[in-house]
Recover the amino acids of this structure.
């Protein structure tokens, strides 16, 4: 059994027991979260929502919050001496999928 959920502007294929990294949710470690934007559920037969499946939710527990790997942003213009270097670390929340409620 798996489901396709939408959170943080992205879509994820999840099954029970999966651990995924999603955009920061602002929840503390150990806290329960519920994803109600379920786009599709497959439990033997495929249910596709328009745009979401009615009554379907995905329950999860927050494992931790953190920052991703650093991405270097380097800007350069030739002949003018212009160099600019920035770094960015995207915030994420790691969640463990507990149950898919179809």
């Amino acid at each position: 059994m798996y489901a396709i959920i939408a959170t943080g502007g992205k879509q994820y294929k999840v099954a029970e027991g999966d651990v995924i990294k999603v955009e920061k949710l602002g929840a503390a470690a150990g806290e329960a979260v519920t994803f109600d934007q379920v786009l599709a559920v497959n439990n033997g037969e495929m249910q596709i929502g328009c745009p979401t499946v009615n009554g379907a939710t995905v329950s999860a527990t927050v494992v931790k919050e953190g920052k991703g790997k650093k991405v270097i942003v380097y800007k350069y213009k030739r002949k003018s001496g212009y160099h600019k270097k920035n770094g960015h670390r995207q915030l994420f929340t790691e969640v463990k999928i507990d149950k898919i409620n179809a």
In short: The two ends are 10 Å apart (CA to CA). Residues 1-99 form one domain. The chain has a mean pLDDT of 96.
